[in-house]
Design brief:
Distance between the termini: 24 Å
Strand content: 25-35%
Largest sheet: 7 strands, mixed
Number of helices: 4
Structural class: alpha/beta
Helix content: 10-25%
Number of domains: 1
CATH architecture: 3-Layer(aba) Sandwich
Oligomer: single chain
Shape: globular
CATH class: Alpha Beta
């Protein structure tokens, strides 16, 4: 079983590194598994997320369109219930214009962060947080830092964990195999930062 940081955590941010099955070999070069180590859905479901979540908690989880059913399965399997779309990230290109991506149907240019709750969830602290985030694309799958800041505004000073993280943040416990090899900064409430080896986040 995967060893996760000790909880409990009130807010868990996660970008699950799901495999993506392409329709042909031509699309394999752009698939997540060519960029970082991915995990099968049963292995993700086996992670003891429910054991480290507080009785009243929020799971903020990125949903990649073709794997939406798997994302919903993770929400339920980890003991949460879907409640809302938290953020929609509209991707910008190097010219500051909406990104015109790939897609089997429409051409993709945005991703959604879903919110799910356990128990009573968390109280909303700031009514002025917008769902829409306009931010530039970076390296494959890396999400904008504005999302973490928006969650901090939305839910306040709680115990926070980021699963499959790429960076350490003030006030967060970070877990992932692509964290930089530096000393963690001191957090206000969440105090743990870990380099536990695990798979990287999904596209």
């Amino acid at each position: 079983m995967t060893h996760l940081p000790a909880g409990p955590f009130d807010l868990i941010l996660c970008d699950p590194p799901l495999y993506f099955d392409t329709w042909s070999s031509k699309g394999e070069g752009r698939s997540p598994q060519r960029k970082y180590r991915c995990m099968a859905l049963p292995d993700l479901l086996a992670m003891p997320v429910a054991e480290i979540a507080a009785p009243d908690a929020i799971l903020a989880i990125w949903a990649y369109g073709p794997r939406l059913p798997d994302t919903l399965a993770l929400i339920a399997g980890w003991g949460f219930s879907y409640v809302a779309i938290g953020f929609t990230w509209v991707k910008l290109d190097s010219y500051g214009k909406p990104h015109f991506g790939t897609g089997y149907y429409t051409r993709k240019g945005a991703e959604q962060l879903l919110l799910a709750k356990r128990g009573n969830g968390l109280k909303r602290h700031d009514r002025g947080v917008s769902e829409v985030i306009l931010a530039a694309r970076r390296e494959h799958s890396r999400k904008p830092d504005e999302v973490a800041g928006g969650l901090e505004r939305l839910f306040g000073d709680v115990r926070r964990l980021e699963l499959f993280a790429r960076t350490r943040r003030h006030g967060w416990t970070s877990y992932g195999d692509q964290l930089p090899e530096i000393e963690t900064v001191t957090a206000t409430r969440p105090t743990q930062c870990t380099d536990e080896p695990t798979a990287k986040q999904s596209a």
